[in-house]
Write a sequence for this structure.
């Protein structure tokens, strides 16, 4: 479940747009976040332990995003998992274990990376210290709330995000490389509908 938390934290992370050199780091990032409405692509995510000496795990998959409340993060290798937001609930489907977990999308009372990456400008301005640490690199450090991470870095290439790093509260780092990013796919809310498969064990945390 720890890995799932980190995965959820990093769902929805691809951006495009222009910024002005005279803007502060927070306004530059906000401008980038406002440069898209929907997107899709693939990812390769690698998890490292606190010592950073070697990768603990690597997984691959695809993602889709439709602002403001829809996303899909599908891990295809080495195991098969789906994390999906349908506008009302967040679903986690472990295809190998045949389990489905559901939580209300609005039930999260902590500041989440999903809100940050989704472009919640009020939260970005009030709850994070944002700095530029290199060309195309934005580091976000929480100053309020109770996020599940210590530090989040967004990495841009040619005004489009190409990677993300998150350091959790135990010092473990997750790096995600985003590939084949499309910023103008044709997505609809219906594309994020989810029905639990027959025979799966269901765990609904909203009842």
């Amino acid at each position: 479940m720890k890995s799932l938390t980190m995965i959820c934290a990093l769902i929805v992370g691809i951006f495009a747009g222009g910024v002005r050199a005279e803007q502060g780091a927070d306004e530059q990032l906000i401008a980038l976040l406002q440069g898209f409405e929907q997107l899709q692509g693939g990812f390769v995510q690698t998890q490292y332990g606190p010592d950073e000496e070697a990768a603990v795990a690597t997984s691959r998959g695809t993602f889709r995003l439709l602002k403001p409340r829809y996303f899909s993060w599908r891990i295809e290798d080495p195991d098969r998992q789906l994390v999906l937001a349908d506008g009302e609930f967040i679903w986690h489907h472990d295809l190998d274990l045949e389990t489905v977990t559901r939580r209300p999308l609005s039930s999260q009372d902590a500041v989440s990376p999903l809100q940050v990456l989704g472009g919640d400008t009020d939260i970005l301005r009030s709850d994070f210290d944002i700095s530029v640490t290199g060309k195309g690199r934005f580091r976000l450090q929480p100053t309020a709330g109770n996020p599940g991470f210590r530090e989040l870095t967004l990495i841009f290439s040619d005004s489009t995000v190409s990677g993300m790093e998150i350091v959790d509260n135990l010092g473990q780092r997750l790096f995600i490389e985003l590939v084949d990013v499309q910023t103008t796919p044709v997505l609809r809310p219906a594309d994020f509908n989810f029905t639990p498969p027959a025979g799966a064990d269901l765990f609904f945390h909203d009842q």
Notes: Confidence is low (pLDDT under 50) at residues 9-22. The first strand starts at residue 38 and ends at 48. The chain has one domain: 2-193. Residues 60 and 77 are 5 Å apart (CA to CA).
